Amino acid sequence: MSGGSEDSICTPGPITGSVNAAIAQPNIQVIYVGGGGWGTGSYWPTSEVPQIIDEFLSELLSSSYVVGLMQYGFLNSFYNGSVPWQPSPGSPLPTTIDANDMGNILSQIISSFPSGFGSGQVIPVAKNSIFILMMPAGITLTVQGAVSCASLTNLGGFTGYHSPTTVNGQTTSFIAIPWCDSNTTPSTADYGYAGLTRTLSHELVECITDPDGTSGWHNGTCELCDFCELPGNTVTSQFPIQNPGILPADFLSNWANQVPPSWEVSDYFSNTAGTCVAPVPGPPQPVNLRFTPQPIAQPGSLSQGQQVPLTFYASDKFGKPTAGTPITLQFFQQSVGATMTANGVTVTAAGIQANTDQNGEITITYAAPAPVNIGVDTLYASLPGNPGAGVSTSYQFFPLQISPGSFDFNPNPIAAAGSLAAGQVVPITFVATQPGGQPWASVTLSLDNGSAGPAYGTAVVTDATGVPFQMTGAQSQSFTPDKNGIINIQYTAPSATAVAGRSDFISASVPTGQGSLYADTGYIITPQGGPLATLSFSPSPIAATGSLQAWSWVPITLTATDASGLALANTFVGLFFGNVGPSGRTSGSGAAQVNGASLPIGPGLFETDSNGTIKINYQAPYQLPPGGVDTITAQDQLFSPSVVATDTYGGTPHFIVILRNFFTDLLNFFRAYF
Fold first, then answer.
1. Cβ contacts of residue 659 below 8 Å, gap of 6+?
2. What is the 3-state secondary structure (H, E, C) of 603-672?
3. Which of 103, 130, 474, 644 has the most CB within a 10 Å radius?
């Protein structure tokens, strides 16, 4: 809530939340309730407000101001402009409207317009839709006991708020902006254009990052912009207007009269920066990316070597081309013999960077493989630093057969072991059709390391809803296949690790009358190393001779590596434990355990964990026999080993042990009874 009573209860504290709670790709629509003009008086000419606010939102939503929100789960947005709306003459709006009644009013408004994206249309009601309602003069808004346009200096009123609502059974979000007309001058802090743009930016940030006010990013009392209104923080910032020449002269002279002319925006708290920020934008950044043609060609229609010219386009919110924009291009090739070039440079899976020309375009050429190949070639484009929010076009060089009863990933595996660079994105298609050919209503996708532990890479899943969902760690989520049974996945590879055998897996399951269908695909991040070459204990020896108290425990780590020093995960090692003394090997005087299981006197097999280690606990005995040594032995195989390592604890001469334990017991006796 901007300038309102919500801020009066805002208290310091860490900002926490989930990237999946944010609106990743919001569609935004402004509606001027009461007609095309909004506001009165010399500072609010009714014909100018929509033009000014459209330009403000266009520049704001394509700037680095919103790029800073990517840390909270935002990816990109679409602004559909503004429309006017008048209630029917026989059904005027009430003079006081509470937040709980806004859903009914929004439903009336939406039913008056064709649904779609474009001039004169209103965006569809959806979970990722945000409707900005510019309320007319004479209407008082109330929310949680606060009243619009009341005394802001006493924190008793507000200049805007955001809230979820339900329209025709669908959850969506809205922002309500009251008309606070007090014949104010441009210097008045909370009213006028400066206050309006500050309020709009404030509410947009918080609606995107905390749409329902509870499960998104906040600290319990403060959302991101509220936090910056606490004492000691920066509250507002200015950034230059990108296209001042298209704005009214009186607006520039009265409201944006800084040098250069600037917008005023609300600061928001950045977890990355650890402070309140309002990233200053440079030139408008592209938010609309697309390829043409799409797809590259009809499945299986190209002859070997046939070239297809492709064009990549980058534009801003209003379709204006963004020239000189760096774009990362990646070619995920399953064929043999196909090539992809951009501006004369070969595109590879590792990626190249190409800049758009003055028309916002990049010229690309695809040369088809031999028709005997089977699979899909995919070209992927993204903004540098944001590989999870790109676009793709592809060619199925053998027609994709989506047959009834399909339940599989493509590609499978995700990529050859160890072949992906850190941050490299691989598009994956999952097909889930029932025996009758219709798609399954819901499929559960899981991401993990193959052993129910956290994955090392990440995946962005887009199902029939069109809303990307980011999966991290060890996570399961239900998704809805589209009409063809398809769910699209973008897997981002992690950095290689120093442990062999680490992997990521994406699996799918759906319950059926005969059990569950299951499929998976995976990527081995670091290929298995060479044969086991070294076994090492730490600490070694277990302890200095005679230094351990009776029955005390010592944690020990055994590490298995190959000749290059690469730790070997999920590798079997022979382990056994015993006492080596004058009469040969006997059962150990102490004890040694792995996961609570005692090590045998003869060799038994134990498996290294995901770090290539085995954790062992050794317990010292009350006393060792004279000259005896407790020994833990590790070897590469049970019989005829070629790699052997030992860890030992040797006792002191027998009479010294007896004397030490006698005096220890005597001391404990006096402590207990005297």
1. none
2. CEEEECCCCCEEEEEEECCCCCCCCCEEEEEEECCCCCCCCEEEEEEECCCHHHHHHHHHHHHHHHHHHH
3. 130
pLDDT digits (tens, 9 = 90+) for 293-320: 988 988 778 888 899 999 999 887 556 7
> Can you give the length of the chain in residues?
674
Q: Are 158 and 148 in contact (CB under 8 A)?
A: yes
Integer-rounded Cα radius of gyration of the chain: 33
- DSSP state for residue 321 in the 8-state scheme: B
Cβ–Cβ under 8 Å, residues 287 and 76:
yes
Q: What is the DSSP string of 392-438?
A: EEEEESS-----TT-EEEESSSSSSTT-PPTT-EEEEEEEEB-TTSP
Parallel, antiparallel or unpaired: strands 503-512 and 443-448: antiparallel
Q: How many CB atoms lie within 10 A of CB 598?
A: 12
Q: Taking the alpha carbons of 127, 71, 269, 242 in that order, is the dihedral positive or negative?
A: negative
Tokens at 214, concatenated: 């509870």
CATH number for 421-527 (one of 3.30.300, 2.60.40, 3.40.50, 3.40.390): it is 2.60.40
Consecutive H or E run containing 330: strand 326-332
Element (H, E) at 555: strand 553-561
Place of tokens 């060890």: 474
Q: Sort strands 534-538 and 553-561 into parallel, antiparallel or unpaired.
A: antiparallel
Which helix (H) or strand (E) is 275 found in, with range? strand 275-277
Give the whole-angstrom CA distance, residue 483 versus residue 263.
Answer: 44
The C-alpha atoms of residue 62 and residue 226 are separated, in whole angstroms, by: 23
Q: Write the pLDDT tens digit of every residue in 464-486.
A: 887 778 899 999 999 999 888 88
- Return the residue matching tokens 């996961």: 595
**Cβ-Cβ contacts under 8 Å for 2 (sequence gap 6 or more):** 158, 159, 160, 161, 198, 199, 202, 203, 225, 266
Q: Which two tokens stand for residue 557?
A: 């780590």
Compute the distance between CA of residue 297 and CA of residue 542 in angstroms, rounded to an integer: 67
Is residue 219 helix, strand or coil? coil
Judge contact between 279 and 234, C-beta under 8 A: no
What do you get for the CA distance between the two ends of the chain, in Å?
Answer: 69
- Is residue 521 within 8 A of residue 431, CB to CB? The reply is no
DSSP assignment, residue 47?
A: T
Give the global pTM: 0.47
- Nearest 5°: phi and psi at 585? -80, 130
Q: Output DSSP code: residue 100.
A: G
534-657 falls under which CATH superfamily?
Answer: Macroglobulin (MG2) domain (2.60.40.1930)
- Give per-residue pLDDT as tens, 520-560: 888 888 776 778 899 999 999 999 888 888 889 999 999 99
Q: Give the pair of three-digit tokens for residue 347.
A: 């595109």
> Are 41 and 93 within 8 A, CB to CB?
no
pLDDT band of residue 44 (cuts 50, 70, 90) is very low
C-beta neighbour count of 282 within 10 angstroms: 11
Residue 527: which of 495, 499, 493, 560 has the closest Cα?
499
Say which residue, 523 or 282, is predicted with more confidence: 523
**For the chain, the helix, strand and coil percentages under 3-state DSSP, each to the nearest 5:** 15, 35, 50
Q: Check if 286-400 and 534-657 are the same fold.
A: yes
The residues spanned by each domain of the chain are 5-277, 286-400, 421-527, 534-657
- 286-400 is classed CATH 2.60.40.1930: yes
CA 250 – CA 43 distance, rounded (Å): 8
Is residue 83 within 8 A of residue 283, CB to CB? The reply is no
DSSP 215: S
